[in-house]
Amino acid sequence: MLPIEMPITEIATFAAGVAFAGAVSGVLAGVFGIGGGAVLVPVFYQVMTALGVDEGVRMHVAVGSSLAIIVPTSLRSFQGHHARGVVDMELLRNFLVPVPLGVLVATLIAASISSEGLRLIFALIALAVGLRLAFNRGSWRLGSEIPGNPWRAAIGFVIGLLSTLMGIGGGVMNNTFMSLFGRPMHQAVATSAGVGVLIAIPGTIGYIWAGWGDARLPIASTGYVNWIAVALILPITLLVTPFGVRIAHAMKKRHLETAFGTFLLLVSGRFFWSLYG
């Protein structure tokens, strides 16, 4: 619950920060085919830290709430890209089982891992993804064709697993996977929006189950999903996501990738500092 002594100006500042994060995440959902969780999770975590939410569930609620928000933003992003006919539906069909299976395993891990462990996972993945985005080169390739099964299924499982632990829609990881095998960036972005749907829906259900009945949860939470956070962010992200889709089809994304990669490196450093500083 919000502490009674907290000044209204501070509450307003936090609300404005969360609203700004929602706008940024919505644009990212369209531009990169991601749900914006990499932006939302650290913002939610800092807000809940300031509001005195129990440290033992703080990171779990940040991740679970992010996944709940990703459900409609990924759906809307996927709809926009699918209308343009650039989604790789064959790859998505191949991911129908392995990605949700990875999500299931991740929720089982989330049910037992500590807040510190979840923060460490986020920091490590953010570091790896941030480095990849910041130093990415279009010439980097592992092949000219996406590998078939069982490698394709294994990669889908890993994308679902790591994305759910991090509270993201899997777009950056799937973008990397597809681009390393020669797929056009626009197709990778569009397909990643569909991957986000496969992650966010079962992930939200899983985090609700994982945190069900925990006495340390903040007010208006169902399991590890806080509906106040969802209600604040959701309208904004749904409003701005179509703008991100238009940006994705109208400009080069190298500068955006560099900026987003730098942001992830800063977030990773912040979480490492909170653990070991």
Number of helices: 11
Q: What is the element string, with H for helices and E for strands? A: HHHHHHHHHEEHH
Proportion of β residues? Answer: under 5%
**Low-confidence parts:** 1-5
**How would you characterize the largest beta sheet?**
2 strands, antiparallel
Radius of gyration: 18 Å
Total tally of structural domains:
1
Query: Strand order of the main beta sheet, please?
Result: 1-2
The first-to-last residue Cα distance is: 28 Å
Q: What best-fitting shape do the alpha-carbon axes yield? A: globular
Q: How many E-type strands?
A: 2
- Write down the overall mean pLDDT: 82
Structural class: mainly alpha
- Helix share bin: over 70%
Transmembrane segments: 12-45, 57-75, 95-111, 118-135, 155-177, 189-212, 224-245, 257-276
Family: Belongs to the 4-toluene sulfonate uptake permease (TSUP) (TC 2.A.102) family.
Protein name: Probable membrane transporter protein
Keywords: Cell membrane, Membrane, Transmembrane, Transmembrane helix
Describe this structure in words.
The chain is mainly alpha-helical. The chain has one domain (8-276). It has eleven helices and two strands. It has a two-stranded antiparallel ribbon. The longest helix is centred in the N-terminal third of the chain and has 29 residues, at 55-83. The chain is globular, with a radius of gyration of 18 Å. The two termini are 28 Å apart.
Feature tags:
277 residues, mainly alpha, two-stranded antiparallel sheet, 11 helices, 2 strands, 74% helix, globular, Probable membrane transporter protein, TM_pro_TauE-like
